[in-house]
Amino acid sequence: MNLTGITPILNVSDVPASLAWFEKLGWKRCWTYNNSGPIDGAADRNDVGPAGFTVVASGECEIFLCQNGQGSRGAPMPRNIGDNDDTGGVWMSWWVCTPAEVDAAHALALKHGMTVVWPPTDEPWGSRECRICHPDGHTFRVSAPLP
């Protein structure tokens, strides 16, 4: 086997709300889809209804978001805060180039009232990390190598 790429699929409760959440962190919407097919302009909805599937991208990385399908998600927020594996959602590492970018992601998350479960911390394994939780329980470790 020789993979040429990998795209995670996250189960979310609300595609338009999840799009807005990712966009606040600088991700871009690629396209949206509902029962009528692709939605013009990657809009949140059309005359058939809201988007039920979408793609968000940051650089060359993409994540599929599927409403109520293709995987599981955690319990509604809030949950136990801290170094907690029991979110019920998917954990994912997002790698950025510098520790300053980790700090910037943390600041953006706080600015937008997102749930931060781990502040930027220099970890003993050689990276600076913070952890941000999506409203459906998915946890994103924003990481950068330490110099």
Give your account of this protein's structure.
- The chain is an alpha+beta fold.
- The protein has two domains: 9-67, glyoxalase-related enzyme like fold; 91-145, 2,3-Dihydroxybiphenyl 1,2-Dioxygenase, domain 1.
- The protein is 16% helix and 39% strand.
- The chain is built from two helices and eleven strands.
- The chain has helices at 15-24, 99-111; strands at 9-12, 28-34, 37-38, 45-46, 49-50, 53-58, 61-67, 91-95, 115-122, 127-133, 139-145.
- The strands form three sheets. A five-stranded mixed beta sheet has the order 1-7-6-2-3, with helices on one face. Strands 8-11-10-9 form a four-stranded mixed beta sheet, with helices on one face.
- The chain is globular.
- It starts with 8 loop residues before the first strand and ends with a strand.
- The mean pLDDT is 90.
